Protein 1
Amino acid sequence: MAAGYNTISMGSGRSEFHPRKPRPDLEDYMKEAGQKVLEQIGGAEHVDECMVANFIASRYNKQANLAAFFPYIDQGLAYKPCIRVEGACATGGLGLVTGIRSVLAETADVVLVVGVEVQNSVKAVYGADILAAAGYYKERKQGHAHFFPGKFSDRAGAYFSKYGREKTRQAMAMWYRNAIENARLCPTAQEFENKTGELEELAFTEPNPKMFVDHLNVYDCSKVSDGASAIAILSEEGLKRCGIQKKDVVEITGMGQAEYDLTQPPKDPVSLDTTRVAVKKALDMAGITIDDLATVECHDCFTIAAILAVEAMGFAETGKGPDFILQGNTSRNGKIPFNTTGGLIGWGHPTGATGVHQAVTIWEQLTKRAGGAQIKIPRNKPYGLSVNMGGDDKTLVSLVYKKT
Amino acid sequence: MNYIEKLENVTVLGAAGKMGSGILLLTALEMLNQKLKPENKDKQFVLYAMDVSNAGLAGLLEYIKEQGIKYAEKNIVGLRKAYASRKDLVDNEEIIRQFASDLTALVRTGTRIEPAFESRIIFEAVSEQPDLKLDLLLTINRNSRQQPWFFSNTSAIPIAWLDERAGLMGRIMGVHFYNPPAVQKLLEVVKTETTNPELSYFVTEYLKNLGKIFVPSYDVAGFIGNGYFMRDIMFAETLVNQLQKDFTFSQSLYMVNKISQDFLIRPMGIFQLVDYVGIDVVQFIMSVMNSYSENEKIHSPLIDKFMELNIRGGQNPDGSQKDGFFQYKNGKMISLYDTGKRRYLQPEEYAGIGDTHLGPLPHSWQPWKKLVREKDKEGVLNVYFNELKSSPHPGATMAVEYLKKFREIGTGLVKNKVAFKFEDVNSVLTKGFHHVYGPVNSYF
């Protein structure tokens, strides 16, 4: 992978954002991100195939058939094969693996992947209806008004009951602080301009079940975001064609995909089993362990999801995720820096783009392009890992990236 | 008769007005929230919206629908539970639309008074004309078989006067909403010596369910809110007159407005607040209060002068501010009317000289918008008022004088048995007028 690009993650918190003023739309974000990748790979003529990862523009924007926006990005993409993929919040990850499979199948040497979502087209209360499509629709009636916050609130409640509330809430607060502090280092992050002094104090705001959910407050949740991320997937032949040097790419050495039955509740509310399976597959394929990783981008749609992900990846035993986080291990100077530009909570979560954004972030870190957000990549740990989750631990994509 | 039975049939008089439409909305919300409870599902709630303005009534249902949608959006967590038995309503959007539809369905609009004869509760929110109010109350009471309870939104007329003249035998209470009723949390409630206690129980339940807070007031014309406000206007006018010895009218009015907003850290200057309420409304309230005032003249020649010039302030139907003492653009003051030159002047014609004379604000000053979010308001205000008191500049000196008068008005309301206690006066000022401190305090 090479030539990544992220647009701004637009939404509340960005000074450019005003809900009543015109903003860029789907095609604008796709064009910005797509063109920036094309510039880095020498133009549209080098591209064999395109993937657009978008969860649900047909409802947020009343727009479908997004693959046909590729020629709008660049006329040089006209008549090339383009595909739109969808897998809820793991859509971006699915876009990447679909592109990777094309390269592995030798049907393409250069694949342009663009992830995009524009969600501020509706108020959050209606966005909750749209996002609920990532769950089982027949559960919608019984579900919470804020459907997914409700799902993860239930998980948080179960976790509190089993392992204790106080320490878990402390870890959730620390996760929030890390996310915002990391986002402040990345100019495209939605929370880049967040100047709040007492982040952890804010994160300890008591949940208000009357207006929101039982066990989470709004700071435990990723925000509503618009934006796009794009990256190129290239074979060795593709790299030569585009004139890209090895030092500027990351190699995909592991890929793990897993699905779980959408109609079924989690087997265990305090465990992300599908995440565990996908990560194991990716690490096994790469032939590494978590000890070889220099950085991780995990799907922290909610702070409790981050704790559960830390455990599912194997960094901490079940029930010990909060300790691992509270010891500072996941902070940018810790043992294993997580979500170095803020993750979903700090950088933003334009759903279809998120998986691609994770890939771009790891590519930036491993190729030393992360600017103010750059972390140290140890020589003996040249790997990064991304985990992109769709629904309540239903659709999972995990990738292992290696510095070349 | 219990709370629900009383609430089943309600009339709002003056429903198309600014206050009436707000009371109508709140009552509709309370009715629907009650109806959505399983035990009330078979009850039939009816809300008559009466007004003389057909044009006003025409837009009323749309207003109720829009506000219903906003309410439902905010309260969707509870509404999903309330509509849980409706299997056809799955998405938030479907529930929100149903709620707005159900809310609108409660309301029947009309210009004729007869439907009110069936109502058990009458909210009266017509304009502050004693004879008009009296006529409506008399007519309904004479023709109704329901022995209705009357709740008057008057902000000036004594309730006992209405009770006695309309022969209501204690079936009336003052329930004075602040503008806009749907937003403002505070109300003043007024009982007379003969008010039936059941009315008080009803109002307590009704306001509690709406999330409102209320302070009791003695039945004295103007009650606490206008008792303070009218006297504040009158004092501001005396300051304008004093300043006019050395400055033009516009410069003087600008300075007093600035002192009352910036130096006193209030959300609006006193004359901006008059524009917001309406110069005509203020004149009317003063005249009503004055007619009941034995020892004090409640009157403002300045208000009269602007009324003679047909400059009335108040708001347009879309909520935008009409021109008054000031001219407004997008809600901001852009110019000030000069009664001598008979035109609005640009700021360069009055602000520079005014600002220079007033001098700087104390170093620790914070704008109202910032101070309302401050956790340690008391600490900040202590420092600020100490600086203000020691400042040699005329602006600070006049502000201290203004604050002393503010305190005098506040304590006078208790002394003259308008308010029951100082805390009630402070509550009205902080929760109704959104000041960051009340007149009775330890700062000055």
Protein 2
Amino acid sequence: MRLVGDLFLLLGSAFLFLGALGLVRMPDVFNRIQAGAKAATLGVLGVLVGIAFLQPGWWPKLLAIGLFILFTNPVGSSTLARAIRIAGVRPWQKPAEESRALEEKS
Amino acid sequence: METEKAEGLGRYLVVFTGALLFWLLLTGSLDSQELLAGLLASAVVAVMAAPRMGILSGIRWSPVLPLQVARYLGVFFLALLRSNFDMARRVLSPALPIRPALVEVKTSLQSDLGRLLLANSITLTPGTLTVDVEGERLLVHWIDASPGTDLESATRAIVSQFETHLREFLE
């Protein structure tokens, strides 16, 4: 029980960490939302499952939290993305970076 | 008329069951007094909210509905797992292998609920993020779009895997 719970906690935290790293590394806001939305959803679910193993009595409330996250997270991400697009932000394009890299080389 | 009636009844049932399940999750006890209060509260909520839950009208009621929902959830969780490993690979690789672009995809789902679930599924699956929904067109931010992707191929790649499962129980 203890070991499985710790494992899930570790996995969840690892995904959350990757999500945070994605926020830093991604070039524009859309890609950041992508990294954040996926990693946060699975990371939080992993942490919740881990807690459920460590504290079996809490599972109903953990399940409620998990369902809530599962429904609100993608909606929030999409809404943010939509607002950003309407505000006039266009997605970052690769070719710009490639030409810049070429310039740096030459 | 018959189907309309059954649909209305199903709507009440869904709201009632959902409210009751949520009550059980929050109280976390099967004590008879708690249960009675929960039943009453859920009934009140169902009577008040069900007529306004127009979003539920897209559901096609059938005995195998739970089975279809379960299968969709299975597909969805697999996709969520894959999407996380996919994102982890991109984030950790030094070259940051992304080719982001906005693409349009088309859905044949007619109901609001179907489109909502589809949009959410797309957001949580490998490399895609729903940006906007206009009628049957969904605007999707794709982190790895091959150059020259058109509507048909993007639809095939992004939408179809969920749509086939969602269409079984949604309009």
